[in-house]
Specification:
Elements (H helix, E strand, L loop, with lengths): L18 E7 L2 H11 L4 E7 L4 E3 L4 E3 L2 H8 L4 E2 L7 H8 L5 E5 L7 H4 L5 E6 L7 E2 L2 H7 L4 E8 L9 E8 L6 H24 L15 E2 L15 H10 L6 E7 L5 E5 L3 E3 L3 H10 L10 E5 L2 E5 L4 E4 L1 E4 L5 E2 H9 L5 E4 L2
Parallel strand pairs: 1-2, 1-6, 2-5, 6-7, 8-11
Antiparallel strand pairs: 3-4, 7-9, 9-10, 12-13, 12-20, 13-18, 14-17, 15-16, 16-17, 18-19
Helix pairs in contact: 1-2, 1-6, 5-7
Length: 349
């Protein structure tokens, strides 16, 4: 059992009627949370911190974060330090004298000097049920690992990476066809609601922080483009989870080989597992006499979806996008890229 953590400075009597809040966040998830926080009657956003504008798009023009765009729309003061290694940035933050520091997907590891600034608590909205999936990509990694449940943790921040005491948690089911993108949107809404609930309970003196069980901790490393590469030499359920977990970013892909043609990179969307085993069993029976069956082999079309061999089933892909081309249906892809070839398969190179 996690031990209780005493927070005697948080009582109903000492809590201000309208708390001074500094918000820190960058992407859309954080913007969704900020939007709800702006409308919370128990607090006032006195400053918003977000990552510096970054080059984006083909022209590499500077693009503001979703949090900055929302903050400016509401005429909130926005600050964009590169990091907090400069003492002047810490001094400027402290000058706001916030009651709470609220952090959601900010993208910076905050030093202890920053975490010590708020009068009451530095609070983080984390998109997993801590101590599971600490780190930068908890939503994607949970889906990739075929988890059936994740959730939101509202936690008190400390110097360690997502190691602080838990203030409030709520679970969220992950559907069999949920992608990281669709789960992200649900997490954003749940995170906003749970944050407000946590703040209200703190105000009422009903929050008792609990230490995390570090023996159960797992880490969700940030995704790279290479994480999108799909290996069809696995069971279909694992492949399905991997594709869902990297959708929309960095995107699922494999390399298409056709007879003696050079391989081409092909991106694809999540599909479905063909539960009827007839096609798979027929393929195995045909090939086991000659050589080991090649997983990733494309059998053709099934229900207007591309049928690909996995370790235990056929996986059906509805839409694909060859490198440099627009996304297309499986039927269009088959007719344009596969119909005239004898042996086609998805591989790792």
């Amino acid at each position: 059992m996690p031990q209780d953590i005493n927070t005697t400075n948080i009582t109903q009597a000492s809590f201000p009627q309208k708390s001074r809040i500094v918000f820190m966040g960058t992407p859309q998830l954080a913007a969704t949370i900020l939007d709800k926080l702006i409308n919370w009657q128990g607090g006032e956003i006195i400053a918003v911190y977000t990552q510096p504008d970054r080059p984006a798009g083909r022209g590499y023009s500077l693009k503001a974060s979703e949090v900055k765009t929302l903050a400016l729309k509401h005429k909130l003061s926005v600050y964009q330090p590169l990091n907090f290694k400069n003492h002047e940035d810490i001094k400027n933050l402290a000058a706001f004298k916030p009651d709470f520091l609220i952090v959601a997907a900010y993208g910076l590891i905050l030093p202890q000097a920053v975490l010590d600034i708020p009068k009451y608590l530095p609070i983080n909205v984390h998109t997993s049920l801590l101590p599971f999936y600490r780190g930068a990509a908890p939503i994607q990694r949970a889906v990739m690992n075929a988890e059936v449940v994740s959730g939101i943790t509202i936690m008190k921040m400390e110097a360690g990476l997502d190691t602080g005491p838990i203030l409030l948690q709520k679970a969220l089911a992950i559907g069999i066809n949920e992608t990281a993108g669709t789960l992200h949107d649900q997490m954003a809404e749940l995170g906003a609601e749970l944050l407000i609930e946590a703040l209200e309970k703190i105000k009422q003196g009903k929050i008792q922080p609990l230490a995390q069980d570090n023996t159960k901790a797992s880490y969700a490393a940030k995704l790279s483009k290479e994480d999108g590469l799909i290996n069809f030499n696995q069971k279909a359920l694992k492949i399905h989870a991997h594709i869902r977990g990297v959708t929309p970013y960095p995107g699922a892909f494999a390399f298409l080989t056709r007879d003696d043609e050079p391989s081409i990179k092909v991106n694809f969307l999540a599909g479905e597992m063909l539960n009827d085993s007839t096609a798979y069993n027929n393929y195995i029976a045909l090939n086991q006499q000659n050589e080991r069956p090649k997983h990733g082999t494309i059998l053709g079309l099934e229900n207007d979806k591309l049928a690909v061999v996995c370790q235990d089933k056929i996986y059906l892909i509805p839409q694909l996008q060859p490198a440099g081309k627009k996304i297309m249906s499986a039927v269009a892809f088959y007719n344009g890229y596969l119909a005239k070839f004898k042996h086609c398969r998805f591989s790792l190179t």
